[in-house]
Amino acid sequence: MGAGTPPLPGPPKPQVKALNCPKCGAAITLRCFGQAETVVCGSCRCILDAKDPHLAILQQFERQTSDTTSLIPLGTRGKLRGTDYEVIGFQRRHITVEGVTYSWHEYLLFNPYKGFRYLSEYNGHWNDISICKQLPMVQSAFSTAAGSSANYLGEDYKHFQTSDANTDFVLGEFPWQVRVGEHAVITDYVHPPRVLSSEKLDKEVTWSIGEYLYGREIWETFRLPGSPPEAVGVYENQPSPVTINVTSIWLAFAAFAVFLLVLMVGFDLRAKKEPVLHETYQYDRAEAKSETSFVTDVFELTGRTSNVQVKTHAPVDNHWIYLNYALINQDTGEAWDFGREVSYYHGYDSDGSWSEGKQNDSVVIPSVPPGHYYLRIEPEADSSLPSIPYAVDVIHDVPVFGIYGIAFLVLLVPPLLISWRAFAFERSRWSESDHPPLQLSGMTSSSEDDS
Amino acid sequence: MFRKLYLLFGFLTLSTAAFGQYRGWSLDSVNQLKNVPKSVRDNPGSYRSVYSGYHHYTGGK
């Protein structure tokens, strides 16, 4: 191209045309290119027709509703599930149940290649929502009845709530003709951490699938300052804090109980239960004025350290006898001192016949080493009892079933606590539903996978 | 994680129960003493049980 040659006319450069609100003149930003149907003026809150080059006013709503602040400012970008999204719209919706209004916020996210998805926030509980890829199957003629469910991609969702939702605040762009006062019937089915929702607007039904997110995940995604609002209560699809499969814990408990039974039978069969002393004595009050204590013959405990059972039988009848016992090791002087009462009372009164106590007593002395032993016995008895025989049996190495009972209870504690925690959480979840806990059946088990 | 902890907990509980049974543990309370004089065998009255003077039940319902 020579000097002085005028340049060839090229294609016209694209011109940026400023968009302004036809009502207040404020600048309007369109972030989702030509996909927005409506855009809301951030200044005067007029809902404008985004398809109209002149941004015709579609609706104006009352200024007093504009006090809602978006936790994520419009235009904020973040990477959600590996894809960059920009927040382009925000709306507040509410339902009224039994005179109480519950409001939640919805954020519209946009990616030029992936399209739209939504975030909802209620009392600090967040959901990542996208439109269903296929139509869910509702498996009940009465889709809102307790126990009704819907199936989506092979997963069953239980009906949680059906309610009339109203939109009372909008801001930003929307790919539909959004209006304040818009009314829709929303039905939620849950399978934590997912929620399946149908939204019926006039004759159009839209199904969406949401997944529970924690506030901190949102804050990290959009790099928001500060910290997210604290989650209040339990949300419909909030994952249970009991992240384990409760059934698997009960199965483990059952296995332990079987092992415990095997141990019990094994030790019972293995225990020597060796009688080492059997004597019958007579308590005589006439002789009791002098020294009543005496010692038994020496008996030998053989084998390993084990327990010793001392059994007492006395045919008391509305009387008592008390025996001060001491099991004494003849070789070492080590002793086990204990007192046992045998008493048996019975009678008849206005309530009928009654009885208390028994004629037998048993005590197990723990961990007695092998050696030569004798018992020192010092009897005392009811002053009205002139004379009474009593028998003393000493048995070496006996099973103590109470140990198994304690082990059983100890093993039972964790499954009970876990089950109670899971139950309480589910109870709290379903108390907010159309099917509160009184009608609850089969909804208390934790459905989350084992961690 | 919890399941593994519970399995460990259960194993320890069963082991403790088995050990206790082997060693002859008991749920009854007795008072263990050392160095009881050998003279007790010849003179039982020279020893007094700590349970002597126990206040006995003397009535029924």
What this model shows, in words?
- The complex is a heterodimer of chains A (451) and B (61).
- By secondary structure, chain A is mainly β.
- Helix content of chain A is 15%, strand content 44%.
- Chain A has helices at residues 215-222, 246-270, 285-288, 401-430, and strands at residues 38-40, 46-49, 57-60, 77-80, 83-97, 100-111, 115-122, 125-131, 137-138, 149-152, 155-174, 183-191, 194-201, 204-213, 274-284, 294-295, 299-301, 306-313, 319-329, 335-349, 352-358, 360-368, 371-381, 387-396.
- Chain A has an 8-stranded antiparallel β-barrel with strand order 5-6-7-8-14-13-12-11. In chain A, strands 16, 17, 19, 20, 21 and 23 form a 6-stranded antiparallel β-sheet that branches.
- In chain A, helix 2 packs antiparallel against helix 4.
- Chain A is rod-shaped, with a radius of gyration of 41 Å.
- Chain A starts with 37 loop residues before the first strand and ends in a 21-residue tail after the last helix.
- Chain B is built from 2 helices and 1 strand, in the order αβα.
- Chain B has helices at residues 2-23, 39-42, and one strand at residues 31-33.
- Chain B is rod-shaped and about 60 Å long.
- With 61 residues, chain B is mainly alpha-helical.
- At the A-B interface, helix 2, strand 16, strand 18, strand 19 and strand 20 of A face helix 1 and strand 1 of B.
| Overall outline of chain A | rod-shaped
Average pLDDT metric of chain B: 84
Identify the quaternary structure here. Answer: heterodimer
Share of β-strand residues of chain A: 35-45%
- The low-confidence parts of chain A are 439-451
Distance between the termini of chain B: 54 Å
Q: Could you estimate the helical fraction of the residues of chain A in percent?
A: 10-25%
**Number of helices in the DSSP assignment of chain A:** 4
N-C termini distance of chain A: 73 Å
State the helix count of chain B: 2
Question: Mean pLDDT score of chain A, rounded?
Answer: 87
Principal-axis shape of chain B equals rod-shaped
Number of strands of chain B: 1
Biggest pleated sheet of chain B? none
Q: Give the largest interface pair and sizes.
A: A-B, 71 and 47 residues
Number of domains of chain A: 2
Unreliable spans of chain B are: none
Structural class category of chain A: mainly beta
What is the H/E order of chain A?
A: EEEEEEEEEEEEEEHHEHEEEEEEEEEH
Spatial order of the strands forming the largest sheet of chain A: 5-6-7-8-14-13-12-11
